């Protein structure tokens, strides 16, 4: 008996945009720290902007269905 192979169609989403959501705010905060002798109180504006961005992105929610889910449904129905 041979191995059963499955040929699924997959789409690789671009994950880069998801990981760089608050990158600019983090960059500003981390650059502010050495300029102010690592005193976080002097970088309160940048820290507040970073916290606001993280809060905003945390409340955005998750995507419930993906294109890979729908492609797998189509492949299953096509095999029937």
UniProtKB/TrEMBL annotation:
PROSITE patterns: CHCH
Signal peptide as annotated in the record: none
IMS import disulfide relay-system CHCH-CHCH-like Cx9C domain mapped to chain residues: 21-55
A Gene Ontology term for the protein's cellular component: mitochondrion
GO terms assigned for molecular function: structural constituent of ribosome
Domain of life: Eukaryota
GO biological process, alphabetically ordered: mitochondrial translation
InterPro entries membership: CX9C, Cys_alpha_HP_mot_SF, Ribosomal_mS37_fun
Protein name: IMS import disulfide relay-system CHCH-CHCH-like Cx9C domain-containing protein
Record organism: Ceratopteris richardii (Triangle waterfern)
């Amino acid at each position: 008996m041979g191995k059963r192979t499955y040929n699924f169609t997959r789409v690789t989403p671009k994950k880069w945009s998801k990981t760089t959501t608050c990158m600019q705010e983090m960059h500003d905060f981390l650059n502010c720290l050495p300029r102010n002798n690592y005193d976080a109180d002097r970088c309160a504006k940048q820290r507040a902007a970073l916290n606001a961005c993280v809060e905003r992105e945390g409340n955005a929610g998750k995507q419930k269905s993906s294109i890979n889910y729908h492609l797998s449904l189509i492949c299953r129905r096509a095999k029937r």
